[in-house]
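User: I'm putting together notes for a lab meeting next week and I want to include a structural view of one of the chains we've been expressing. I don't have a solved structure, so I'd like a prediction I can at least talk through. The sequence is below, exactly as it appears in our construct file.
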Amino acid sequence: MMGTVERSGIVTLVSQNTLFRAGLASLLTEMELGEIIQAASLNDLHNSGRLFNEDGQMILLIDASGQRANAVDLVVRGRSYFQKARIVIMTDDINIETMSLCFAAGLDGYLLEDISQQSLADSLRLVRLGEKVFPSRLASIIVDYSRQLIEPQICMERIRTHHLSDREAQVLRCLVNGDSNKLIARKLDITESTVKVHLKSILKKTEAGNRTQAAIWALKRSSDLQGWKTATPASLAAAQ
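Assistant: Thanks for the context. Below is the predicted structure for the 240-residue chain, given as structure tokens.
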């Protein structure tokens, strides 16, 4: 789409960093997305008195690097000042909680500063068309996050098939991590004597001679699950 300037569009770049603002403005000009306007802050832009079109063609591109704590406020103020603008934040990292709050506040796009020039141009055009845009890196983060939630459940199911109770399975996971009886009691909010009772049952059901053998038994039956691979023989032995 390069070669035809989108004259009806406006991209307003807001950044406190003068050099970053100037450099990005130069790139945006090359992208031929329309008129490029610069401002050091949302307040400066709002107080300039300039009237922007209200047909959704204005993109408000906000540099939020190093301002994670203020990101949601930036979106809220941007939306209150320019109700029909498409609001995009550029930042230096991904924080799922902050990003979720920003979209709930009316954000249209969340981009990372290391985005390529072509991807930035494509993203801004999609935003102008009413689409929501996210960093492509978010997909892998969601997969990792989901795995962290699901793997412990899978592990519990694997162990439960060997007739261990839920509590015994929890104690066994602690053994795999090399936890002492005292630490297990604190983690599970039970007494040390109760831990010992569970350990005795675990040893009987797994036909293990000691806690190390029981932990190794668990690892062998969950060898394909990374969540169980957190202990070494040395750490297991040290916890006895």
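A couple of points you could mention at the meeting. The radius of gyration is 27 Å. The CA atoms of residues 102 and 161 lie 43 Å apart.

User: Perfect, that's what I needed.
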